[in-house]
């Protein structure tokens, strides 16, 4: 009888433990389910996309090095007459500056947001530009054979995993520029970091856009926003060409009220230039331009400015310092893709910058997905997790108390880093991702929330 009682108690205890274990597993599964993407289109089991994939860094950086492999498009003939009409129409239609303080959040000039004006459509450009992005093949032919080829066919089929509320728009459309400025201002950002190529130059999939700059400046001024320049890795970029291009930008646009100047610790107000893929050029060349003793020095001239280099690998911080740059930014919205874009490295990077009198500008993003143009790249996808990924990035940035935070991006649709309004869309062949269960403006609202939080915390830092 005693043995029977002992066995009965043992069985009851075992059943209770088993039941509790099953309940624990069920609760974990339910929690994970709430974090799953709205639709399973990423190709990897959920969770892998949020882990660092450092072994992929070198390979993907190679693809990024040539303007993020945005291109290899077929050569096309520019429709110059339509272009001129569009630009002239915009110049004539820019409304005067008006007071928007009551209806929109005040701009935060320490929140910089990357902006792309390279999109086109038949109405304004005579053809689609960038929305018809080609599908980029994997560098390994064996892998490439497993994925589709060709290019996208707008307006229903575009080179993006999300679909913009404004449709396959043209960056020259005055109503689009107006809507973009209003969205960026509503998000309480203050400085537009405009992707820029010298006159007559463009990325391989686009068209020259420098003549659009005056219109963007005018609309930015209407919304009390400022514009700085994100200098892309144009052909033959070196110390000499950079000197001439910086001079060109300051001479042509420096007098505009929307042209951004940053107040330094010494009280000077200097233009600021972000330099994408700066690591492609050796430090000795940059030093010619950016150090006082350099042969092409821009220091202590009317064209002196703050130059911000892209940090990808850890060793780049020493190259950046040696080159004479004034600071560094991390750009990529993929946590773990590179040393610089990994949130856990920001504290040490900030400490390095502080000890070497450099600015550290972390770049935060809402997520990442580029499988619409790199269908083989699902391992670098970062799920938005209904805004949680974005907020985690902001939280990591605020921890290091940066002078400036940059946002990747307002409208880099190809890489799914946009905070521009997106809407649900389904076609015969594809279901686009969207921001549900939230509204199309959810990432603008989150940006505004963190802009205010940053402002309040910054006041505490300065006390």
TrEMBL record:
Kind of enzyme, top EC level? hydrolase
Reaction catalyzed: N-{alpha-Glc-(1->3)-alpha-Man-(1->2)-alpha-Man-(1->2)-alpha-Man-(1->3)-[alpha-Man-(1->2)-alpha-Man-(1->3)-[alpha-Man-(1->2)-alpha-Man-(1->6)]-alpha-Man-(1->6)]-beta-Man-(1->4)-beta-GlcNAc-(1->4)-beta-GlcNAc}-L-asparaginyl-[protein] + H2O = alpha-D-glucosyl-(1->3)-D-mannopyranose + N(4)-{alpha-D-Man-(1->2)-alpha-D-Man-(1->3)-[alpha-D-Man-(1->2)-alpha-D-Man-(1->3)-[alpha-D-Man-(1->2)-alpha-D-Man-(1->6)]-alpha-D-Man-(1->6)]-beta-D-Man-(1->4)-beta-D-GlaNAc-(1->4)-beta-D-GlcNAc}-L-asparaginyl-[protein] (N-glucan mannose isomer 8A1,2,3B1,2)
PANTHER family per the record? ENDO-ALPHA-1,2-MANNOSIDASE (PTHR13572), GLYCOPROTEIN ENDO-ALPHA-1,2-MANNOSIDASE (PTHR13572:SF1)
Give the family per the record: Belongs to the glycosyl hydrolase 99 family.
- The protein's name is Glycoprotein endo-alpha-1,2-mannosidase
Q: Does the keyword Transferase apply?
A: no
Subcellular location field: Golgi apparatus membrane
Q: Can you list the GO cellular component terms from the UniProt entry?
A: Golgi membrane
Q: Which domain of life is it from?
A: Eukaryota
> What is the membrane topology noted in the UniProt record heading this document?
Single-pass type II membrane protein
What terms describe the molecular function in GO for this protein?
Answer: glycoprotein endo-alpha-1,2-mannosidase activity
Keyword list (alphabetical) reads: Golgi apparatus, Hydrolase, Membrane, Signal-anchor, Transmembrane, Transmembrane helix
Q: Which InterPro entries does this one have?
A: Glyco_Hydrolase_99
Q: Does the keyword Transmembrane apply?
A: yes
Q: What is its EC number?
A: 3.2.1.130
Report the Pfam families cross-referenced here: Glyco_hydro_99
């Amino acid at each position: 009888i005693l043995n029977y009682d002992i066995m009965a108690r043992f069985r009851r205890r075992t059943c209770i433990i088993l039941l509790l274990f099953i309940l624990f597993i069920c609760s974990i599964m339910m929690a994970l389910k709430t974090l799953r993407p709205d639709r399973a289109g990423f190709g990897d089991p959920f969770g892998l996309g949020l882990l660092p994939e450092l072994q992929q860094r070198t390979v993907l950086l190679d693809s990024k090095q040539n303007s993020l492999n945005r291109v290899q498009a077929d050569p096309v003939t520019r429709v110059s007459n339509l272009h001129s009409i569009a630009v002239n129409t915009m110049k004539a239609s820019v409304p005067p500056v008006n007071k928007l303080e009551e209806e929109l959040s005040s701009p935060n000039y320490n929140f910089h947001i990357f902006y792309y004006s390279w999109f086109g459509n038949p109405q304004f450009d005579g053809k689609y530009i960038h929305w018809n992005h080609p599908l980029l093949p994997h560098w390994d032919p064996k892998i490439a054979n497993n994925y589709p080829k060709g290019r996208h066919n707008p307006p229903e089929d575009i080179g993006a995993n999300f679909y913009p509320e404004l449709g396959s728009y043209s960056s020259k459309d005055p109503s689009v520029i107006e809507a973009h400025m209003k969205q960026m201002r509503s998000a309480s950002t203050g400085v537009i970091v405009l992707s820029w190529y010298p006159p007559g130059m463009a990325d391989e999939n686009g068209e020259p856009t420098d003549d659009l700059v005056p219109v963007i400046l005018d609309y930015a001024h209407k919304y009390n926003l400022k514009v700085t320049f994100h200098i892309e890795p144009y052909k033959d970029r070196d110390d000499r060409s950079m000197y001439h291009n910086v001079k060109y930008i300051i001479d042509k646009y420096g007098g505009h009220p929307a042209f951004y100047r940053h107040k330094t610790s010494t009280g000077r107000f200097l233009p600021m230039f972000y330099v994408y893929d700066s690591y492609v050029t050796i430090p000795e060349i940059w030093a010619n331009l950016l150090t006082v003793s350099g042969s092409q020095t821009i220091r202590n001239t009317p064209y002196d400015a703050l130059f911000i280099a892209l940090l990808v690998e850890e060793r780049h911080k020493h190259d950046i310092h040696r080159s004479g740059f004034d600071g560094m930014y991390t750009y990529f919205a993929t946590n773990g893709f590179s040393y610089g874009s990994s949130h856990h490295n920001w504290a040490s990077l900030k400490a390095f910058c502080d000890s070497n009198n450099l600015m550290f500008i972390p770049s935060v993003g809402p997520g990442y997905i580029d499988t619409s143009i790199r269908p083989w790249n699902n391992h670098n996808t970062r799920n938005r997790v209904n805004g949680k990924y974005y907020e985690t990035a902001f939280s990591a940035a605020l921890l290091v108390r940066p002078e400036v935070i940059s946002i990747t991006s307002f409208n880099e649709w190809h890489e799914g880093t946009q905070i521009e309004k997106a809407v649900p869309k389904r076609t015969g062949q594809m279901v686009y991702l969207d921001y549900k269960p939230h509204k199309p403006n959810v990432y603008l609202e989150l940006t505004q929330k963190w802009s205010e939080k940053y402002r309040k915390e910054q006041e505490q830092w300065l006390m």
